[in-house]
Amino acid sequence: MFRGGNTHTAQIFIGILNDLNDLYEISGVEVGQHFYWQIGGFQVHAQVLITSWIVIAILLSLAFFATRNLQTIPTSGQNFVEYILEFIRDLTRTQIGEEEYRPWVPFIGTMFLFIFVSNRSGALLPWRVFELPHGELAAPTNDINTTVALALLTSVAYFYAGLHKRGLSYFGKYIQPTPVLLPINILEDFTKPLSLSFRLFGNISADELVVAVLISLVPLVVPIPMMFLGLFTSAIQALILATLAAAYIGESMEGHH
């Protein structure tokens, strides 16, 4: 009887291993083809890194050329950069508050500008002209890895803000207004990055997919209004994510949930 019990346990264990192996194989399923680089022992999406570096180069070039010769009476380029800075500063001040917003302007500004330029690059830059051994170039935010990374950065930022401002008392928010809500309050911290990442990824991917389908079906005239709509949508998505990131940071530093 004991031996039979061991056999039955072994069969269950083998069945669990087979199920885990099936899940592992499913996790390797990909949509389309991707161009990979091998960096150390890791395999990374090369096309996402390439387009991300291009976006970063655009932002650094804009910052360098607009601020290399600052004037008391600003020129057109300096005016443009100062307008962007004032917009980001107002957005951060509105969500975080007058007393605490200044240290967070660089973070919120970087998030907004990176997403904004990434989204616009998907609509304006002819990525598909450049051929790769596998896959094709696209906007960085058209990849779930990029949007998840941005969402996780936001989560780390608001945890840091709450702990830095309130110390260990920050964790008291999980049992407010009643300890019964502890599981829901913990679940909320998992749903925030999921919501941020899938909202941005879904909207940008859907926009590029709609334009690609329309161009294949009706190559002239019809896709143009959709492309202009995509430019508007990309700006709105950058504004939404930056606003939510600032709101989460401001909420974490408040004395109540």
Automatic annotation (TrEMBL):
PROSITE patterns: ATPASE_A. It is a multi-pass membrane protein. The keyword Transmembrane applies. The gene is atpI. One of its GO terms (cellular component) is proton-transporting ATP synthase complex. It comes from Sphagnum lenense. HAMAP family: ATP_synth_a_bact. Its main location: membrane. F-type ATPases have 2 components, CF(1) - the catalytic core - and CF(0) - the membrane proton channel. CF(1) has five subunits: alpha(3), beta(3), gamma(1), delta(1), epsilon(1). CF(0) has four main subunits: a, b, b' and c. Belongs to the ATPase A chain family. The keyword Transmembrane applies. Key component of the proton channel; it plays a direct role in the translocation of protons across the membrane. Keywords: ATP synthesis, CF(0), Chloroplast, Hydrogen ion transport, Ion transport, Membrane, Plastid, Thylakoid, Transmembrane, Transmembrane helix, Transport. This is ATP synthase subunit a, chloroplastic. It holds the Pfam family ATP-synt_A. The chain crosses the membrane at residues 44-66, 104-124, 144-163, 200-222, 228-249. GO terms for molecular function: proton-transporting ATP synthase activity, rotational mechanism. InterPro entries: ATP_syn_F0_a_bact/chloroplast, ATP_synth_F0_asu, ATP_synth_F0_asu_AS, F0_ATP_A_sf. It is found in: Membrane; Plastid, Chloroplast thylakoid membrane. It comes from the Eukaryota.
